[in-house]
Design goal:
Elements lengths: L4 H19 L14 H10 L5 H17 L3 H8 L1 H33 L1 H21 L23 H4 L1 H18 L9 H30 L5 E7 L15 H11 L6 E5 L5 E6 L7 H12 L4 E11 L11 E2 L5 E11 L5 E5 L13 H4 L33 E5 L6 H9 L4 E6 L8 H17 L3 E5 L5 E3 L5 E4 L6 E7 L7 H5 L2 H27 L1
Parallel strand pairs: 1-2, 2-4, 3-4, 8-9, 9-10
Antiparallel strand pairs: 1-13, 4-6, 5-6, 6-7, 10-11, 11-12
Helix pairs in contact: 1-2, 1-3, 2-3, 3-5, 4-5, 5-6, 5-16, 6-8, 6-16, 8-9, 13-14
Length: 539
């Protein structure tokens, strides 16, 4: 044991962030997550009732934010420079660390009112409540959902089709609590419980794995697979793609790339987020050269459906009710801007879906009804800046006789409950169109790709991912990455995609773990409030 108290506190403060960084994708030491919270629990015990103890815990969570998501810095740095990037990303990390601290604050209070054992249950429920909140309010940032840790090791969490990623979060929390309690016991048998808590969920994955493999064999026998898709990775620098004069030239390059790969068997051509940078009026799309080029392509290849990202806008009619994100022109007209997915069918007809899960600070100012006056603080990532409009619910694209597809746009693929809504509505294949080049060659784009593996398991759907600069890939329904490209290379990836129609337990019931934990967490908070008031009354 460390005798120097200051050194001991420093180690306990930094160790959680280091352990979680080593456990998180793209690294392979996921098992370290089962002890990563133990130093923080020891830190709370060591500093409980002492001045500055809460700040040390907050510093530990802030360090975790820094070491795991530092790459967000580049999205602002390349556009705005060093100082704005440091200020914006620093504020985001400190704010998220503050939210992370709230469950630990609740744990500290619960130890006073309920004792150590029940306080650990309070910590688990409040942490799951925190994760559930981050999935459902407008300051969303679910990147730190603990269940994401296993995204690269899909074979041990096949039961996510029952629990979703929050089942993994519960697993991590439960095992950490067991290991922490073991440190307070003397018998060697104390390690049996946490060891079994780690091993048993891994073993439970085996029957799920076998069943999914058998499903694949059955579908092959029924000839239900074999839809050819082309996934486009144009590799256009995201900071240059919106330059004036190049609105159409980049699209032409993409279509030239596709032309050399398309066959009579090709059913889908998938292009990345904002592949169309020409600002398209949804009321009159056919007058834009980008749309005309895509319509000409589908007429030339009548078996093919194109799904692509685009920047679009739509005018409000006179007297029509406006959203808080509406923009006004100099002559008093109002319109909405969107991050859009377009589908162009062989007849040249368009279907439109607007990104719903928008990135806070980059694509929207959260709660614009109240905070719209802060819109000028939004990150400028090129193209259309400021708060965007959004669709209120998911929408699948009908591909004729081919399987229906879910057009997930970038950040949306990080939201398990939202993705499951596409599947409930009939999506047979999940698409992810994204532009991850903002983060350079860092962990960010790799984590984003691995998180899509979790969506494949939860929904038991294959995922087709078209990323501007990589990584473009096909993920099977077991969450295994199959064909894939390299980072930062222009290419077209040809894959055969399988479609499925079954509904998993998770798809049917969504984030029930988060809902239940939130209910219990609120119950505990009310209990602590009542106890605190009764103590004050007695005093």
């Amino acid at each position: 044991m460390i005798q120097n108290r200051k050194l001991k506190l420093a180690v306990l403060t930094l160790l959680p962030g280091i352990l979680f960084w080593l456990a998180w994708p793209p690294r392979d030491l996921f098992f370290l997550s089962f002890i990563a919270f133990v130093p923080l629990l020891l830190l709370e015990k060591e500093t409980n009732g002492k001045k500055g103890g809460g700040w040390l815990m907050y510093a530990s969570l802030a360090f975790w934010n820094l070491i795991l998501s530092w790459w967000v810095f580049f999205a602002e740095y390349d556009e705005q420079g060093l100082l704005p990037a440091l200020l914006v990303t620093g504020f985001m990390m400190l704010a998220n660390a503050w939210l992370m601290y709230l469950p630990w604050w609740g744990y500290r209070k619960a130890r006073k009112f309920f004792g150590d054992k029940k306080a650990l249950l309070v910590l688990v429920t409040l942490w799951l409540s925190y994760e559930y909140l981050h999935l459902n309010w407008q300051f969303t940032w679910p990147w730190f959902t603990l269940g994401n840790i296993f995204a690269k090791h899909n074979y041990i969490i096949q039961w996510y089709e029952i629990t979703g990623a929050m089942g993994g979060s519960l697993w991590v929390l439960f095992v950490n609590v067991l290991f922490y309690k073991c440190l307070q016991m003397d018998k060697w048998t104390k390690w049996i419980k946490p060891a079994l808590a780690v091993i048993i969920p891994m073993l439970i994955s085996i029957p799920f794995l076998i069943k999914s493999q058998l499903d694949y064999q059955l579908d092959v026998n029924k000839a239900l697979n074999g839809y050819e898709a082309l996934l486009v990775q144009p590799n256009i620098n995201p900071h240059d793609k919106f330059n004036k004069g190049e609105e159409v030239s980049n699209l032409k390059k993409m279509l030239t790339m596709v032309d050399s790969a398309v066959t009579d068997k090709t059913r889908y051509v998938i292009m990345p987020e904002t592949a169309i940078v020409e600002y398209v009026d949804e009321d009159q799309p056919n007058r834009f050269e980008s749309i005309q080029l895509l319509q000409e392509f589908t007429k030339k290849h009548p078996n093919t459906y194109i799904i692509t990202g685009a920047s679009t806008y739509n005018w409000y009619d006179q007297g029509e009710e406006r959203q808080a994100t509406a923009r006004e022109t100099e002559n008093g007209q109002y319109y909405e801007s969107y991050n859009t997915a377009l589908e162009i069918n062989p007849e040249g007809e368009l279907d439109i879906y607007h990104k719903s899960k928008l990135v806070p600070g980059a694509e929207k100012m959260p709660y614009p009804e109240v905070l719209n006056f802060l819109d000028f603080l939004a990150l400028d990532l090129g193209g259309i800046s400021g708060s965007l409009g959004r669709d209120k619910e998911p929408k699948n694209f009908d591909a004729g006789e081919n399987p229906d597809v879910a057009p997930l746009i970038c950040y949306e693929s990080v939201f398990p409950g939202y993705v499951s809504q596409f599947t409930r509505k009939g999506a047979e294949i999940l698409l992810v169109i994204t532009n991850d080049g903002w983060w350079r060659d860092t962990d960010g784009y790799k984590q984003h790709m691995y998180y899509a593996c979790l969506r494949a398991i939860e929904n038991r759907r294959e995922v087709l991912r078209s990323a501007n600069t990589g990584i473009t890939c096909r993920i099977d329904k077991l969450g295994t990455i199959q064909e894939h490209t390299k980072w930062w290379e222009p290419t077209v990836l040809k894959v055969d995609v399988n479609s499925f129609t079954n509904i998993t337990f998770y798809v049917a019931y969504g984030d029930y773990i988060g809902r239940f934990a939130s209910f219990i967490g609120i119950f505990f908070l009310l209990g602590m409030f009542v106890k605190s008031k009764s103590k004050l009354g007695k005093g």
